[in-house]
């Protein structure tokens, strides 16, 4: 006797028509293709969370920006094609963590110029630091402080390299998951103020 699976707390189930080519075989299991998965995610998730997943898939080279754009345009007029295009336009292959993606997308959606990801700072050809998010023309950067900062040695190394940046006239703003959750508007104001101050000084 088959068991019928009913609603489960915290799980939302969506149904959709599967087009030819929308599935692939993974170790004997049929799953949706990367492009179809991104389309479904863009249709059903809020844009920031959709970009988080798409960033991860791009970083793992499961798909490409070009492939996702083509997939969306091939389905123009169907529910979700514009959502996928929007998410892809906000995506970045350089994102290295979900929280970095969330930080970047929220800042861009708030009206700030799009930052560079994993920007490398060098002095006289020597590596100084790699920044999570950076506006190099203004020498302003954002660093996401994740759980790995519980390691005192890693925190020490990180702060030491960032101190070198501060000596090189960079403004480095730090953000944590708690700050993003509880005081994003305050953090946004700090980033905007830094960019505006540097913009005035470069005129």
Describe this structure in words.
- The protein is built from eight helices and six strands.
- It has 203 residues and is of the alpha+beta class.
- The chain has two domains: 68 residues, no CATH class; 104 residues, VSR Endonuclease (Endonuclease, Chain A).
- A four-stranded mixed β-sheet has the order 3-4-5-6, sandwiched between helices. A two-stranded antiparallel ribbon has the order 1-2.
- Strand 4 and strand 5 form a beta hairpin.
- 23% of the residues are buried.
Strand line-up in the sheet with most strands: 3-4-5-6
The strand count comes to 6
The pLDDT mean sits at 86
Q: What structural class do the secondary elements suggest?
A: alpha+beta
- CATH H-tier superfamily of the largest domain: VSR Endonuclease
Helix content: 40-55%
Biggest sheet descriptor: 4 strands, mixed
Figure out the total of helices. Answer: 8
Question: What's the short version?
Answer:
The protein has 203 residues and is an alpha+beta fold. The protein has helices at 34-44, 47-59, 65-74, 81-90, 98-109, 152-167, 177-182, 184-201; strands at 23-26, 29-32, 116-123, 126-135, 140-144, 171-175. It folds into 2 domains: 23-90, no CATH class; 98-201, Endonuclease, Chain A (3-Layer(aba) Sandwich).
What are the SSEs and their pairings?
Elements: E1 23-26, E2 29-32, H1 34-44, H2 47-59, H3 65-74, H4 81-90, H5 98-109, E3 116-123, E4 126-135, E5 140-144, H6 152-167, E6 171-175, H7 177-182, H8 184-201
Parallel strand pairs: 5-6
Antiparallel strand pairs: 1-2, 3-4, 4-5
